[in-house]
Design a protein that fits this description.
40% of the residues lie in helices and 27% in strands. The chain has 315 residues and is α+β, with helices and mostly antiparallel strands.
């Protein structure tokens, strides 16, 4: 039971909705995050085996890429993670104590039981709303360049998508989506395993800076009892593969926009200018529309998304 609750530490963060600073992870990844956010690099060793929970398998499968895993979130979240990495038991951490105690009273130990999962999700959402918790982010980054790895098939797969036009990538995307959702037969549901399914909203590969960018927005459902909105981006920066995924709990109608803004510095060729509210409004509007147009031209935004966002800025 403790192992499951270790995973919930990623949910406990006190987030500001205003983006105010950049966080740099390694030499390539820059994220535009709330001022209250910080990050921690999770090392793969015996002390973090439970913390990684299922992620360890990813490390094994991609061992040759020398993957580094970071969690980005509010300072309180980072402190909790550090405490767990240092060996503190979940039940000895204040943010877990009451939840664990109530679960014990109810004898809710089986997380293969939809009733338990539903209760857990409901209680967590109460905490999120009360504490104004919105989202947190995982970042996976390959220290080793793709063209330096020995796995020929993997390199060929990446090369298949490089320097393709957006129209070509659109057709490729359709085939992938059709394949992944064939078992559900609805062109939107992907069964990750017997417990987890993904309901796809956005599922798109586009060309950004002559590199493929895979973007997806979806809801992850566990045993059809509890679901959470997620945003995903996978691409290549200076030859290094990276994956960024966020999970949202509060004000999720705004999360896709927040996610796009967060990852924007990775793809921008110029430094992001952060508005303080006292700058020239006309210049701010022009800058924002220009950035939207760049996203539209690169295929990250659809025409409808572009027009709606532009209208909102002008209003």
């Amino acid at each position: 039971m403790s192992k499951f609750f270790v995973v919930t530490l990623f949910l406990l963060s006190f987030c500001s909705l205003s983006f105010a600073k950049n966080i740099q992870l390694g030499s390539e990844i820059i994220l535009d995050v709330p001022d209250s956010h910080d990050f921690i690099l999770i090392e793969e060793d015996a002390s973090t085996e439970d913390l990684l929970y299922g992620t360890g398998e990813l490390f094994e499968n991609l061992e040759e890429l020398d993957i580094k895993f970071s969690v980005v979130g509010p300072t309180k979240l980072i402190e909790v993670i550090q405490s767990l990495v240092d060996g503190t038991e979940p039940q000895d951490i204040d943010v877990f104590y009451q939840l664990l105690e109530e679960a014990d009273k109810r004898e809710y130990y089986d997380f293969d039981d939809p009733k338990v999962v539903k209760w857990f999700g409901k209680e967590m959402k109460k905490i999120m709303k009360k504490e104004k918790i919105d989202f947190y982010t995982y970042v996976f980054f390959s220290n080793k360049k793709i063209d330096k790895i020995d796995d020929v098939k993997f390199r060929e797969f990446i090369d298949l998508h490089r320097n393709r036009s957006n129209s070509e990538l659109t057709e490729i995307t359709k085939e992938y989506k059709k394949y992944l959702t064939q078992w559900a037969g609805d062109n939107k549901t992907f069964f990750l395993n017997e417990y987890i399914s993904l309901t796809l909203n956005k599922f798109k590969i586009s060309n950004v800076n002559n590199q493929p960018l895979f973007r997806s927005d979806f809801k992850m459902s566990y045993l059809h009892a509890f679901s959470i909105p997620m945003n995903l981006a996978i691409s290549i920066k200076n030859g290094h593969l990276f994956l960024i995924v966020s999970e949202c709990w509060v004000n999720c109608s705004k999360q896709t926009k927040r996610f796009e803004k967060m990852i924007d510095p990775i793809f921008s060729n110029t430094d992001r200018k952060i508005s303080t509210g006292t700058e020239n409004a006309t210049n701010d509007i022009a800058d924002e529309i220009m950035k939207l147009n760049e996203l539209y031209e690169s295929g990250v935004l659809t025409k409808d998304e572009f027009e709606k966002a532009k209208k909102k800025i002008l209003n």
